[in-house]
Amino acid sequence: MPEGHSVHRITRQFERNFVGHVVHAWSPQGRFALGAAEIDGRRMTDARAVGKQMFLGFEGDVWLRVHLGMYGAWDFAGDIRMDATIASANGRMGQTNQKGTFLEGPNPDAVVFDTAGENSLTSIGAPRKARLRMSESEKEGGDLATFPPEPVGQVRVRLLTDTICADLRGPTACEVLDPAQVEAVVARLGPDPLIDAGRAAEDRFVASVTKKPTPIALLLMDQNVVAGIGNVYRAELLFRARQNPHTPGRLVPEEHVRHLWHDWAKLLRLGVETGQMMTMDDLDPEAYRAALANRADRHWVYKREGLPCRVCGTNIVLEELGARKLYWCPYCQA
What residue ranges are annotated as transmembrane (predicted)? Predict the structure, then answer.
């Protein structure tokens, strides 16, 4: 399932390539025909993300809400201008959201091919006709012979301008909403530090965690508690905090909860900048480049069950919690 950094990156693809343009919409598979007809021919005015939810605004106060879920993905094709959060020639990053803040650009020395195709750093530069898939992993395809390309597979909705198209497949949710309905969806979500890094959002997260008897590992995955954290970031955040995943939220010291919030903000920003869930700190340049290139080298515990902990040597444990896989070190996180 795409985690928060991926959804922010996808939204910024729309911000860079679609906002300000008239968009034609249709549903090749037919399941979203009525919704597509509602937004067809309207100019896109906004693109926002909150956690794992994305909202595309159109003229007339019409919004398209998309939640990719486990299997959803966007495919972009055409004259693609890459992710607005990648540093441009002047080093300035694209707007994150309605707050209008900017992120610092990644170190240009960190531009590394990812063997798993998790990032899109190889596509920095001028627009070109190409394909790009954006879900949990971002993968480039080959050059296009014709534009627009024929839809491939079960495309729920295609959004098309004169120069670029975006095809959505397999989402959990795809619906047209009015502003009040959008606000109702957002109100149910926990805070997202990329939207609001202020004290009020932090306090809201802390209050949600410290009043509940639910294990902290489940709370971090609850989108009503905090928006955007998935299985990878959950495991890595808890290890980085040396926090036992089974501790009830109300028994986790407040300073530990605040540390989790700030660490999540840090990792989320890094994930948006690089397109990768980089969770290891203090690596030398060679190790950092290796980690960018290979997913197995950039996590402390995720998918390392049975392997020795990078810190203490104890074998990493894999268990099921809340119908999801949980990876943790029983010594470091005792």
Answer: none
